Amino acid sequence: MASEVRMVFMGTPDFAVPSLQTLVREGYRVAGVVTQPDRPRGRKRELTPSPVKVAAMELGLPVFQPERLRNPENVRRLLEWKPDLIVTAAYGQILPREILETPRYGCINVHASLLPKYRGGAPIHHALIRGEKETGVTIMYMVEALDAGDMLAHRSIPIEEADDVGTLHDKLARVGAQLLRETVPALLEGRVQPVPQDDSQATYAPNIRREDERIDWSRSAWDLVNQIRGLRPWPVAFTLWKGKPLKIWRAEPVPGREAAAPGTVLSQTEEGVIVAAGEGGALCIQELQPAGKRRMTAAEFYRGRQMEPGEILG
């Protein structure tokens, strides 16, 4: 049956690539791939294709990159592929109603959270920032409201203490692809019973803003650790030191501290920079990156440019 169903795949970042590759590997007819336009990246601001575009070209699939999908001409062009099912994964644009209502099997989405928690564009970041112990992937029907469609399947995984956005992203991308492989045949054969979401339990995970990246030293040390790993490896939490951004890549809480205002540097050794945090705690910064410098360990930082106890980070 797989070869009889025409699909369109819509996705953009690395998270979506395993799902696309799985559909092709399972023998589905992917008529085309829709992804965001090439964007300037890097120091030279060179136009760079999305990971999904790169994967699609390697698979020999047609690629369509509309700047604005809602444009009627773009809708018409997409529907010329005559999809029986549209699969999306972190595509990055809202699908207009005409597209949602066209495929006979509907439009389904691979979302990196256990819905209805963490609807929105940055579910992995926010699950870590809020200190969750568990997350997962949900496959759901797409509707015009944000991540609010009926759920077709979900799978949970634990969040380990060592996880950050990078490791959790890779785990969830693999889980999403596996869950998609299991769910699509069941959907096509009518063996799936959609389950409505409980909107009263919904939480939201909007895209990360610049103000979300800045360390608020009045928060507890554990909150700050969760913020740091919830922003690593991108965009990376920061504080200000001598008026310039100081990125903090890795840190851990340390018990107790002397009386000092949050943000006060208490000591610096090769093991780390100890900074007063809120609620009577302190944070040991183990890996950091001063403005214009490379990422370095606390020991490297200690040898190069020492902080003085009493300095204030903010």
Largest sheet: 7 strands, mixed
Strand content: 25-35%
> Span between N and C termini?
59 Å
Count of strand segments: 15
Uncertain stretches: none
CATH superfamily of the largest domain: Formyl transferase, N-terminal domain
General form: elongated
Mean pLDDT: 95
What is the domain tally?
2
Order of helices and strands: EHEEEHEHEHEHEEHHHEEEEEEH
**CA-atom Rg in angstroms:** 23 Å
The count of helical stretches stands at 9
CATH topology of the largest domain: Rossmann fold
Secondary-structure arrangement, i.e. CATH architecture of the largest domain: 3-Layer(aba) Sandwich
Helical residue percent? 25-40%
Strand order of the largest sheet: 5-2-1-6-7-8-9
Instruction: Give the class from helix and strand content and strand pairing.
Output: alpha/beta
What's the level 1 CATH class of the largest domain?
Answer: Alpha Beta
Pfam family, one: Formyl_trans_C
Keywords: Protein biosynthesis, Transferase
Catalytic activity: L-methionyl-tRNA(fMet) + (6R)-10-formyltetrahydrofolate = N-formyl-L-methionyl-tRNA(fMet) + (6S)-5,6,7,8-tetrahydrofolate + H(+)
InterPro entries: Fmt (IPR005794), Formyl_trans_C (IPR005793), Formyl_trans_C_sf (IPR037022), Formyl_transf_N (IPR002376), Formyl_transf_N_sf (IPR036477), Formyl_transferase-like_C_sf (IPR011034), GART_AS (IPR001555), Met-tRNA-FMT_C (IPR044135)
